[in-house]
């Protein structure tokens, strides 16, 4: 299975994912990124921190090429 990296874009800074995760395809990686974003938003809302709504995952392939940016707000738009 291909390896994908969820690099985190926050406050203009890119925090690299040095480990990566295997997914069947990019669609599965995007679905997981949205679910992770929802979970993180929930944690930050409890702390009254809305800055996380500006964050995004930049999904990269095993060669480091950026494939898709998933703004955290996209996670709020999907059916749960």
Structural description of this entry:
There is one protein chain. By secondary structure, the chain is an alpha+beta fold. The chain has one domain. Helix content is 31%, strand content 30%. It contains two helices and five strands; from the N terminus they run βββαββα. It has helices at 26-46, 74-77; strands at residues 3-10, 13-15, 21-22, 56-60, 66-71. Strands 1, 2, 3, 4 and 5 form a five-stranded antiparallel sheet that branches. Strand 4 (56-60) and strand 5 form a beta hairpin. The longest helix is centred in the middle third of the chain and has 21 residues, at 26-46.
List the helices and strands and how they pair.
Blueprint: E1 3-10, E2 13-15, E3 21-22, H1 26-46, E4 56-60, E5 66-71, H2 74-77
Antiparallel strand pairs: 1-2, 1-3, 1-4, 4-5
Q: Give me the strand/helix succession.
A: EEEHEEH
On the 0 to 100 scale, the average pLDDT is: 93
The SS-based structural class is: alpha+beta
Task: Report the helical percentage.
Answer: 25-40%
- What oligomeric state do the depicted chains represent? single chain
Task: Give keywords.
globular; 30% strand; alpha+beta
What would a concise description of this structure say?
The protein is an alpha+beta fold and 80 residues long. Helices cover 31% and strands 30% of the residues. Strand 4 and strand 5 form a beta hairpin.
């Amino acid at each position: 299975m291909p390896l994908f990296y969820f690099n985190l874009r926050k406050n203009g800074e890119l925090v690299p994912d040095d480990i990566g995760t295997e997914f069947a395809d990019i669609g599965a990686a995007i679905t997981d990124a949205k679910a992770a974003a929802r979970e993180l938003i929930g944690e930050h809302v409890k702390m009254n921190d809305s800055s996380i709504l500006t964050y995004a995952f930049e999904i990269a392939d095993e060669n480091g090429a950026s494939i898709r940016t998933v703004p955290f707000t996209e996670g709020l738009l999907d059916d749960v």
